[in-house]
Specification:
Layout (H helix, E strand, L loop, with lengths): L5 E3 L7 H10 L3 E3 L21 H6 L9 E4 L10 H8 L4 E6 L2 H13 L11 H4 L6 H4 L4 H11 L4 E5 H4 L3 H12 L18 E2 L2 H8 L1 H9 L3 H13 L1 E2 L6 H22 L28
Parallel strand pairs: 1-3, 1-4, 2-3, 4-5
Antiparallel strand pairs: 6-7
Length: about 300
């Protein structure tokens, strides 16, 4: 069987798309296309776009025997059965997990839905969409229970965990840590100047509709060479502007809700995450520009 030697399991909106690209640049790393096959998701989940084991194996068939092989399905982190299914098929797999300040991650997911880049289109304002603790967008930023579930099945030693705000300070050092964890040359330097999947808002709805059309997306992924793909991303960026920041009032309410989970998450992963409860960090849309944050590893 040709199966992954590492899996990036989440969390969503925490820098995983950029990391997928940086992994792909390494000559000794092979990553799947699509980025998120979602093979291990619960049966019947509409996101599960690779449904059979032969089809899943085929994603890695072109990898060299000496390459680390991986995929980046961020829905695995919260899915109730993915952890057990991963362990059953690839018990020795190495796992990667990215975490992000919970209120920022929830707001980023909201913006993704708001601009129509998700299976669920969000039409409410942030004050309503992120108002209650039972809202899905809010629940997705509760990390501790899912971390505990994975640790119970795999053990802490199988995991490499990156906090996005720390990753942003020095992406090259962070990628070196990740390369070490998956067993490839940690001295390789990917081009981290390019940021991917940023949560910007469209200026022109018609241009955005063309760029986001499923046919355009399929062509961009499977037909166009990388130079053309980059050109499409450049057009998308020129048609975009930074979204308004999360209001300080809503951030404060969300932070108070997340406080117990932040404290427990910090204990589980052995990191001081108290800065998540302090003043808003620098903008974190995919991979950040270097900033000055205390307590980075």
């Amino acid at each position: 069987m040709t199966l992954p030697t590492f899996v990036l399991i989440g969390a969503s909106r925490a820098g995983t798309t950029s990391t997928h690209h940086y992994l792909e640049e390494h000559p000794d790393v092979f990553v799947s296309h699509p980025k998120e096959p979602n093979y291990f998701l619960e049966e019947g989940n509409p996101k599960r776009n690779v449904k059979t084991l032969p089809a899943y194996e085929a994603l890695f068939a072109a990898a060299r025997p000496d390459q680390a092989r991986g995929e980046c399905s961020v829905s695995y982190f919260r899915d109730p059965v993915s952890a057990e299914r991963i362990r059953a098929l690839v018990p020795d797999v190495q796992l990667l997990l990215f975490l992000r300040q919970p209120a920022d991650r929830a707001y980023s997911s909201y913006l993704l839905r708001r601009r129509g880049d998700s299976n669920v289109r969000e039409r409410r304002g942030p004050e309503e969409a992120l108002a209650g603790p039972r809202e899905e967008l809010v629940q997705e930023s509760l990390y501790a229970d899912d971390i505990q579930r994975y640790f119970d099945l795999f053990g802490r030693e199988r995991f490499h965990i990156e906090v996005l705000e720390h990753f942003a300070q020095d992406p090259l050092a962070a990628m070196s840590r990740i390369y070490t964890h998956i067993g490839v040359d940690p001295t390789f330097r990917p081009d981290t100047s390019q940021r991917y999947n940023e949560g910007w808002a469209a200026r022109n709805a018609r241009v955005n509709a063309v760029l986001k059309h499923p046919a355009m997306r399929r062509a961009a992924r499977t037909v166009f060479p990388r130079a053309v793909q980059q050109g499409i991303r450049d057009v998308a960026r020129r048609n975009s502007s930074p979204p308004p920041p999360l209001s300080s009032e809503l951030r404060a309410r969300l932070n108070e809700f997340y406080r117990p989970d932040i404290e427990r998450t910090g204990e589980l992963i052995g990191r001081d995450l108290s800065f998540w409860l302090e003043a808003p960090p620098a903008r974190t849309s995919a991979v950040l520009k270097p900033s000055r944050l205390e307590g980075a590893p």
